[in-house]
Design a protein that fits this description.
By secondary structure, this protein is an alpha+beta fold. The protein has helices at residues 24-34, 38-41, 43-47, 58-72; strands at residues 14-21, 79-90, 99-111, 118-128, 134-145. A hairpin with a 6-residue loop joins strand 3 and strand 4 (118-128). This is MaoC family dehydratase.
């Protein structure tokens, strides 16, 4: 599949990013290493939390959506690097067994003033579950290669 360049992407365009099913063991394993809060690690302790059940770390959720973004969009483009993440929001807990789906929407685009061979795309990642519940959102700016510097 040919790569998409900066010129090929328009504001308002959306892409579906695929799915990822999150298991209880993955939630606990991630939490043990990176976010050892009781409601991510222990089902009994989670019952006493405001969530009343085991939930995934928000950071794990973010990592999953970065994976979906990479596999579903960035690998198909002339993406060179990330520049900024903003407005990261965890909108609803993610539970064991949830099937996460992602999509992106292009919000803005501009040519680099310092290097005309590069362009900046601003895009929003929106994550939801199999029930349609929106659980995650973040805005990113990425650096993308241009096909030519004349467009």
């Amino acid at each position: 599949m040919p790569k998409l360049y900066f010129e090929d992407v328009s504001v308002g365009t959306t892409w579906e990013l695929g799915t990822y099913e999150l298991s209880k063991s993955e939630i606990k394993s991630f939490a043990e290493q990176y976010d050892p809060q009781p409601f991510h690690l222990d089902e009994e302790a989670a019952k006493e939390s405001i969530f009343e059940t085991l939930i995934a770390s928000g950071w794990q959720t973010a990592c999953i959506y970065i994976r979906l973004l990479t596999e579903g969009f960035l690998e198909r483009t002339s993406h060179m690097a990330g520049k900024r993440v903003s407005d990261l929001q965890w909108l609803h807990p993610v539970y064991p067994g949830d099937v996460l789906t992602g999509r992106i929407e292009i919000l803005d685009r501009s040519v680099s003033s310092s290097n005309p061979e590069r362009g900046y795309l601003t895009y929003r990642v929106i994550g939801s579950t199999q029930t349609g519940e929106t659980v995650f959102r973040m805005d990113l700016v990425g650096i993308f290669g241009r096909r030519s510097n004349t467009q």
